[in-house]
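Risk register update: the risk of archive-format incompatibility is retired. Evidence:
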Amino acid sequence: MTTTQTGVTLVACLFAIIIMAVYLRKWWSGGRAIKDLISMVQGFLNGALTTVCAGGLGGWLAGCTRQAAGGVGEKVVSGTTGTEAGTPLATASLGQLTEEGGAVVFFLFVILFFSYKTASKEDKGRLLGFVAAGMVLCVTAGVAGMLDGLPDLINGLGLSARNALEGKA
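Archived output:
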């Protein structure tokens, strides 16, 4: 479902893309170590999943991140160029989580927390930068459309785990 009322702006998306571009450029020119790419993918995936956490802390943090990026972005772009930058983009939802999907997302958030706690300063920046980028970009109609199977995948993983724990085939 596409709307224009959830508050993601072009400049908020621009900030998310800039964060990703800076870290991806460092990764590309720095030897392209897979371990460094993993922290970026982990962060983006967790950021994307916060957008389907309706009513939860993850969803609230994603909304706050979008508002902050849009607010700061509007002031910076407006002050730099003299143009307005706050018009909302068409947005969409990735979908909804089932009870089992919610358990998988919680598990991934716990893994993210401990990954962050043990990460180097550079990896912490990559993780948080890509979490924020996922929170912003994954509510745009285009990115949500590309990732629309993600909640079904997460829900399916949770259901498979539940079935395994209950001894069902």
